[in-house]
Design a protein that fits this description.
Elements: E1 2-3, H1 14-26, H2 37-57, E2 64-67, H3 70-85, E3 91-95, H4 100-110, E4 115-119, H5 129-135, E5 140-144, H6 158-167, E6 171-175, H7 187-190, E7 194-198, E8 209-213, H8 239-254, H9 256-277, E9 282-283, E10 294-298, E11 313-314, H10 330-334, H11 339-343, E12 346-349, H12 356-374
Parallel strand pairs: 1-11, 3-4, 3-5, 5-6, 6-7
Antiparallel strand pairs: 2-8, 7-8, 9-10, 10-12
Helix pairs in contact: 1-8, 2-8, 3-4, 9-12
Length: 375
């Protein structure tokens, strides 16, 4: 079985798994118990990881809040902002191609009286900046735009989103989950107010992520209790997971240029091979700037689901989370792809372990599967 679903989750690096195991066995003290040596050892592991994650994303350590994953980070940012600003700034704007972890909390805010507007994208999945301009007003609290789409890989102009939003007095939340280790970036340089990350998207353990909160901003906590993470995420910290995340983030930042070049080369090879044998194939967002390693293929005229033909290749038809609902990709539909084509599209996402031989095998299976469905 060849794995080609790295945007859904990545395997844990051996050195990261070793660190997680060591923490489970040796660093088991409660990090809130600073009076004990074991507690201080656990706290030191968290502090080290916080510095590593902050350095990897271009933030300061005091701006990083550890969570159970990117979904919790999204909810904390969106609900935390809207709880504070709803009486004076009830409007929240999101792009139409956001992850469900952004769309669903935004929708939940409407039950409390928020005004939620989804901003359209063009056929390449790029945000309509004119629609953003016309939707911004002095009642807008938060603008949510994903930096790199998890289904198509399209990269948004986050700096322009920030410029327009800040001019209107709105804050900006950015889902940067897919970027860590694939392209260089800095949350400070991009100018965003909040951003989310997930360890299992960058070869770390599942069940841990982070929220970046720009220094000086206030949030209402989503989880209340013992006051951990500066009162924004109560509950005893997941020390092994956080330590593993720190190491994975550190490696991602150190190796980002080599990883990017590797993914760019393999993506070009995959897409050229598929195009050569299937000239009618559509590579979604193919005319836009994209994240290396992400290819969403659509082929008109198939008599069935393309993904079902890949017996020995693990891939997906879109977001792994949304696939639980068994609905065609909302990202493709927002880009103007009809429901039938969207349901018969598939995403190949590559990772650092992917080889050229893997690519040729994946391309072969894609081509054979399409030909069976066309015949």
């Amino acid at each position: 079985m060849i794995y080609a679903d790295y945007n859904a989750t990545t395997p844990c690096l051996p050195e990261v798994a070793d660190l997680v195991r060591d923490c489970l066995c040796e660093t088991y003290g409660n990090p809130s118990n600073r009076a004990s040596l074991m507690g201080r050892k656990a706290r030191a592991a968290i502090d080290t990881a916080r510095e590593q994650v902050a350095r990897a994303v271009g933030a300061s350590p005091d701006e990083i809040i550890f969570t159970s994953g990117a979904t919790e980070a999204c909810n904390t940012a969106i609900l935390g902002v809207m709880e504070r600003l709803l009486p004076t700034r009830p409007r929240i704007l999101t792009s139409a191609v956001e992850h469900p972890a952004v769309c669903m909390p935004a929708e939940a805010c409407t039950h409390a009286g928020a005004d939620w507007i989804e901003l359209p994208v063009d056929s390449q999945g790029r945000l309509d900046l004119n629609a953003l301009k016309s939707s911004l007003n002095d009642k807008t609290a938060l603008v949510c735009v994903m930096a790199a789409n998890n289904e198509t890989g399209v990269l948004q102009d986050i700096r322009e989103v920030v410029r327009l939003s800040h001019a209107a007095g709105a804050l900006v939340f950015c889902d940067m989950t897919q970027m860590l280790g694939k392209i260089p970036f800095s949350v400070h340089s991009e100018g965003v107010d909040f951003a989310c990350f997930s360890a299992h998207k960058c070869y770390g353990p599942k069940g841990v992520g982070a929220l970046y909160k720009r220094r000086g901003l206030a949030l209402s906590p989503l989880i209340r209790g013992g006051g951990q993470e500066n009162g924004l995420r109560s509950g005893t910290e997941n020390v092994p997971g956080i330590a593993g995340f720190g190491l994975a983030a550190d490696l991602a930042a150190r190796e980002v240029n080599a990883r990017r070049a590797h993914l760019q080369r393999l993506t070009r090879l995959l897409e050229s091979e598929v195009r050569r044998h299937l000239p009618n194939v559509i590579i979604q967002s193919g005319a836009a700037d994209r994240l290396p390693g992400t290819s969403m293929f659509t082929l008109p005229g198939l008599n069935g689901k393309w993904l079902a033909q890949l017996s020995d290749v693990t891939a997906s038809s879109g977001s792994a989370c949304a696939s639980l609902q068994e609905k065609p990709s909302h990202v493709l539909r927002a880009m103007g792809v009809n429901e039938t084509l969207a349901a018969r599209s598939l995403r190949i996402s590559l990772g650092t372990p992917t080889t050229e031989a893997d690519i040729r095998h994946i391309a072969k299976r894609l081509i054979e599967g399409a030909q069976r469905l066309q015949s």
